[in-house]
Known about the structure:
Blueprint lengths: L11 E2 L17 H8 L16 H17 L3 E5 L13 H12 L4 E7 L5 H4 L10 E6 L3 H11 L6 E6 L24 E5 L11 H14 L3 E5 L3 E4 L10 E5 L4 E7 L2 H4 L2 E2 L2 E2 L8
Parallel strand pairs: 1-2, 2-3, 3-4, 4-5, 5-6, 6-7
Antiparallel strand pairs: 8-10, 9-10, 11-12
Amino acid sequence: MGKNSSIEWTDHTFNPWWGCAKVSPGCTNCYAESWAKRVGAKVWGVEKSRRFFTPKHWDEPLKWNEDAKSDENRKRVFCASMADVFESRADLDPWRLRLWKLIDDTPWLDWLLLTKRPENIEKRIPWKDQWPDNVWLGTTVENQEYAATRLPILLQFPAKRRFLSCEPLLGPVDLNAWTISLPKHLYPIDWVIAGGESGTNARAMLPGWAKTLRDQCQKAEIPFHFKQWGHWAPVPAPKKEKSAARKFWDEVLGAEIFMEPKGKKVAGRRLDGITWDELPATA
């Protein structure tokens, strides 16, 4: 985790701390929890303490900022891949204050703040009507239920960019209420990231879910980024009885489809033969 992140939609990753607690279906097979357990960090759950870091760790984004300034090339920083910046815990407040100052001190970095807790944003941000030019605010939308719950909150904020992470995508998502019929008191969606779940216990993302989300973005002129199929990839109907492929009913396509557990790398990230790497313009 750090400079030159392997996550396709960011340049760097910065974690102000490690640890979180599960709040919705998208958290079920949390990759961050699995990674923390793998390295022996007991930081997951409401009762667990969080892991904090030294000044050397906090100095890293300052170096990234100087490099970006020198190159005159802005960089995106995903904050936080191993936590949720807006988790409701008083012990995190001093670290949040430190983060806000760091964001202010790094104007050449666009900070992507992604949360599953948008209801906590207003009480924990230092900005009100005037947000910094280098803050992008996002929320996870894994299915229609959480689109309805989280989007009306996210889109209230005048951040320079508002984005959705529809990963893991666990069902079809209709964004029309926030694109075609956007209420006047809300701000628009600036970017949508979509992807399937990875790992051996992953749930399949059906092709119709991804395609309809892409089509909605194209219609609304919202940049669309397809991150991955995840563990399951669409395949033709198997010709052999003994096959790892599994049959699903795709309600969006109105057809039976087959998915096979190929693993993230083999499944790839092409949707209808295209790599969707669209990005919003910097503020």
